[in-house]
Design brief:
heterodimer; A: mainly alpha; about 75% helix; B: mainly alpha
Chain lengths: ~500, ~475
């Protein structure tokens, strides 16, 4: 597994270096790197996914593990492991990597090499977050993926990039420091119990932390994950960062980076401190429902295409939070599905928003209108993804939100009913977005706009196919994550 | 003096003799290149002598000086920092057209003083080392005599530093009155039993004096002016060599002379540490000149470092705390040195001392990519971002703090670090600007500057990614 990371990092360096020879070379190198990594990834996981044995035995939920000694003084290992959940999320990361490269293909002209390098390094950091099972390593990737992302926003962002990039970095870094404190507190408690240093997730599972310290430590982890998710009231960095980031940055940010928060919540928050997490579930469900509704209301008020999609992310990610703390395998499956479906649909919407800004030099919805006639391909794609994010039955987002609400309803009918309101408000803001941008009279200066190219259509087509597949036949995906979720619920039960 | 003692003291003897050789060389013929190489040779020889000592040696070489692993490690750090300073100064001296003879001599003298300080096991040696270091640094700060701001800074440091030394001396006198000895170990034996108000007062006075040199709040007022006014390589020297040496002697006061066993001292230090972490970072927010900014940020870093000293007496934490303080000091030294070397390479190019103003660094990434990368890596390391030396340092400090359950100090650390990210990042952000400045890139970097920059970048990253190699070395310190 580690060679996936190495290839991504080296590819980034190569793309940067190639800038001096030709400004179109970096994007090609990035594409080649991604293709190589995806090929390696498929070769790695294909035999595991097709044969049923690793799950059938029930001995371990890990499909594969890999570990090297790194800092023996603290028992820190460079250890990676992949289960069904991380497999899906790494796959999503690589897929959205392609989307980001295609989105930046003609958009980025200034310092293209350094741009592509930062893109690949962000992806490397994210893949690392999804694979690391040593908490020190996890924290390292968690922080390291921020630096290239910060640079992407700060150098290639739009008019207010400096403030947005700064806000993004400070929110995530400050909450990350609390997580470091939490990690070290757990590690020291582990030393006191066993006499040895270890940051390994598996070791920590064997020696669960209990007592009042556990609550504080859980809060440290929780805050970092809630900021990243983002949950109300820690979401205020997100609209700025999404709006100001270049298209590729928004795609990665919305599609993958937010998922690291949800992933961390499930794997480390719930996994390491199940009892504390259960105790905290009522307030967290309230936070989730408030986020769902608040995000929807704010999205409706936006005039800026990207800002609207950003606030809709707050709403959709609120569903993930609800799903995690519903304590129900059904809702957990829904949360994982929502991560993937939201990743696919939102990154497609950001790609469309970026394409519009590239052509119209504005993100303001009042300056758009009637664009369907000028760009029918883009219009059709926009309609598909907007309908998907509304939660149209038959598409992935519906399946995810339905599972979450159904799981939640068993124990918390009122919360479930409140959250379901968001399906209505979601339709309101999403359809108004479609209407304001693509219907109505077409401005004269917009009649000659260039429509999506075949490459754009191909990429969006893949995303659309993914959403359809998730909506119609999600079982293979659910099968992949079931062992992980079953393991979590056994832990929570005991 | 037998052979063993001679060998143990050889690094100090080489420095002393080297200074005389350099003076002779200057007296015979002033020559920039010759001076430079004599200076480098003296430091390298002394480094070799330190490295050649067998790791287990602990020797009361004289009643004043002890040669142990602790002194050995800090000598290595000080000599390396001095070497980097000399190499970085070369280009600056040529550019300014300043006389290099006295400059090199003063750097060697200050390094010698710092080495005496880390070997001191007696208050007399401590004061001697402190003054050799101090007097050389005053002169170095005011070295560009035509720059009013440098002379002002030199004078300020002279007056304030002398006052703080006086306070410190008074503290030492009080301890002598209470215990009747100036030897640290014997002092410790006297201090340990007696719960004496005289000793509490003396300890506070000594810590005030040391706190001034480390620029801890509330003794930090001088820091930004002197950081700004001093020539950039000298600022780097002051921020690293001088602080390392004084911190090392603080550890000796704290452990050997056992001042740390007094409740009053602990409380005072805790307040000083929290104030330094919070105030240092808050004040750094307002700075536009990167040198001033680093001045205030060093206040905060000394605050972080102080955590490791305060928790030293907590049960079962001493080993981890000692490791943490050594690691943090190494990480701080490497990162700070890297930052000032980068600023020296920038400062070459514009009107001194404004050339380190944030506005003037606009677009550095595109004008001087190597220097910009060096400065970025250094600042990220100071901010404690993973993969850099600074992160491992911070990791150690937090680990030790958690182990000692020093929550109030850790909260201040987290708060301070969160604030610090803002100003480090804002500085880095300015490098990405598009502004074209006149005179940018006018002076080509020498091969030596380039090599130095690359070595420092690799050094900061290697310490951050493969810390175990260095951690393994700690077995002989502990």
């Amino acid at each position: 597994m580690s060679y996936l990371l190495v290839v991504l990092l080296l590819g980034g360096a190569l793309a940067w270096w190639s800038e001096r020879y030709d400004s179109t070379l970096p994007a090609k190198i990035t594409l080649a790197t991604l293709t190589l990594v995806s090929g390696l990834f498929i070769r790695l996981v294909y035999p595991l996914v097709t044969e049923q044995t690793p799950f059938a035995e029930g001995s371990s939920l890990w499909l594969m593990t890999e570990a090297y000694t790194w800092i023996p003084r603290f028992g820190i290992q460079f250890s990676l492991a992949m289960d069904g959940m991380s497999l899906l999320l790494v796959g999503l990361t690589l897929l959205l990597g392609f989307v980001a490269v295609v989105a930046s293909w003609s958009e980025i002209e200034h310092r293209a090499g350094f741009f592509q390098a930062n893109l690949l390094w962000t992806l490397a950091g994210t893949v690392g977050v999804f694979l690391a099972v040593d908490l020190f390593l996890f924290f390292l990737f968690w922080e390291v993926m921020l630096v290239p992302m910060y640079l992407l926003i700060a150098i290639w962002g739009h008019e207010d990039r400096s403030r947005a990039a700064m806000k993004f970095f400070i929110f995530t870094q400050a909450s990350g420091l609390l997580m470091l404190l939490a990690i070290l507190t757990t590690a020291v408690a582990y030393v006191e119990q066993t006499g040895e240093w270890s940051f390994s997730y598996m070791d920590w599972l064997d020696q669960p932390l209990i007592g009042p310290t556990a609550s504080l430590v859980f809060l440290g982890f929780l805050l970092a994950f809630l900021v990243k998710l983002p949950a109300f009231p820690f979401h205020s960095w997100l609209p700025d960062a999404h709006t100001q980031a270049p298209t590729a940055g928004s795609v990665i940010l919305a599609g993958v980076l937010l998922k690291t928060g949800a992933y961390g919540l499930l794997r480390f928050g719930v996994g390491l401190f199940p009892e504390v997490a259960i105790a905290f579930s009522t307030p967290l469900l309230v936070v989730g429902v408030v986020g769902v509704l608040y995000g929807a209301v704010l999205a409706f008020g936006q005039q800026d295409f990207k800002r609207l999609v950003a606030y809709s992310s707050v709403s959709h990610m609120g569903f993930v939070l609800i799903g995690v703390f519903a304590w129900n395998p059904l809702a957990w499956s829904g949360a994982v599905l929502q991560m993937i479906a939201h990743g696919l649909s939102t990154s497609a919407l950001f790609m469309i928003a970026g394409a519009l800004q590239h052509r119209l030099h504005t993100r303001q919805l009042e300056k758009m209108g009637g664009l369907w006639r000028a760009m029918p391909r883009m219009g059709a794609m926009a309609m598909f993804f907007i309908i998907a994010s509304v939660g149209m039955p038959g598409l992935g987002n519906f399946m995810a939100e339905f599972l979450i609400l159904a799981g939640l309803f068993q124990a918390w009918p009122l919360m479930s009913a409140l959250a379901a309101v968001a399906l209505v408000t979601g339709a309101v803001y999403s359809l108004s977005l479609l209407q304001r941008a693509f219907h109505g009279p077409l401005a004269d200066e917009h009649t000659t706009l260039r429509d999506f190219s075949t490459m754009d259509m191909l990429v969006l087509g893949v995303l659309a196919f993914g959403l359809l597949a998730l909506g119609i036949y999600p079982q293979p995906v659910l099968d992949l994550v079931t062992p992980t979720l079953t393991a979590l619920s056994t832990m929570a039960g005991s | 003096m037998n052979v063993m003692i001679f060998k143990a003291l050889l690094p100090l003897i080489i420095m002393g003799a080297g200074i005389v050789v350099l003076m002779l060389q200057i007296a015979i013929r002033r020559h920039h290149v010759a001076t430079f190489y004599v200076g480098i040779a003296v430091i390298v020889l002394s480094l070799a002598a330190v490295a050649g000592l067998s790791p287990t040696t602990t020797l009361d070489a004289t009643p004043l000086l002890i040669v142990d692993n602790f002194a050995r490690l800090f000598s290595l750090l000080i000599l390396l920092a001095a070497l980097v300073t000399l190499m970085a100064s070369d280009q600056w001296l040529r550019f300014e057209g300043a006389e290099s003879g006295e400059y090199t001599l003063l750097i060697l003298l200050a390094t010698f003083g710092a080495m005496v300080l880390v070997h001191a096991q007696h208050a007399a040696a401590f004061i001697l080392g402190l003054e050799i270091l101090g007097v050389s640094v005053y002169t170095l700060i005011a070295y560009p005599q035509r720059q009013a701001v440098s002379v002002e800074a030199g004078l300020k440091y002279l007056v304030l530093s002398s006052a703080s030394t006086a306070i410190l001396l008074f503290g030492v006198a009080l301890i002598y009155a209470a215990t009747g000895t100036l030897d640290f170990q014997q002092m410790g034996a006297g201090v340990a039993g007696a719960n004496n108000i005289l000793i509490s007062c003396a300890a506070i006075l000594i810590l005030a004096g040391v706190g001034f040199k480390l620029s801890l709040v509330p003794f930090h007022m001088w820091t930004p002016d002197i950081y700004e006014g001093a020539p950039t390589p000298v600022t780097g020297f002051l921020a690293t060599v001088s602080k390392v040496a004084i911190f090392a002697s603080l550890l000796r006061w704290y452990t050997d002379a056992r001042l740390g066993e007094y409740e009053a001292v602990l409380v005072a230090l805790t307040f000083v540490a929290i104030l330094s972490m919070v105030m240092g970072n808050l004040l750094a927010l307002k700075q536009d000149n990167v040198k001033r900014l680093l001045g205030y940020s060093s206040v905060a870093h000394m605050g972080y470092l102080l955590i490791t000293v305060i928790i030293f007496t907590a049960p079962g934490v001493a080993d981890l705390a000692r490791e943490a303080s050594v690691w943090y000091l190494i990480a701080y030294t490497v990162s700070t040195l890297a930052a000032f070397v980068a600023l020296t390479m920038v400062a070459d190019r514009g009107a001194y001392p404004d050339s380190t103003h944030r506005e003037k660094l606009q677009g550095l990434f595109w004008r001087q990519p190597l220097v910009a990368t060096l400065l970025t890596v250094a600042l990220l390391s100071l901010a404690g971002v993973p993969l850099t030396a600074g992160f491992i340092g911070k990791f150690y400090v937090v680990a030790a703090g958690v182990d000692a359950q020093a929550w109030s100090l850790l909260v201040a650390l987290v708060l301070g670090s969160a604030i610090s990210i803002f100003y480090y990042l804002r500085t880095i952000y300015s490098f990405t600007g598009h502004a074209e400045l006149d005179g940018g890139g006018a002076v080509a970097m020498t091969l030596m500057s380039k090599t130095l920059a690359v070595i420092l970048i690799i050094g900061v990253l290697l310490l951050g990614t493969m810390p175990n190699q260095l951690i393994d070395q700690f077995s002989w310190i502990l």
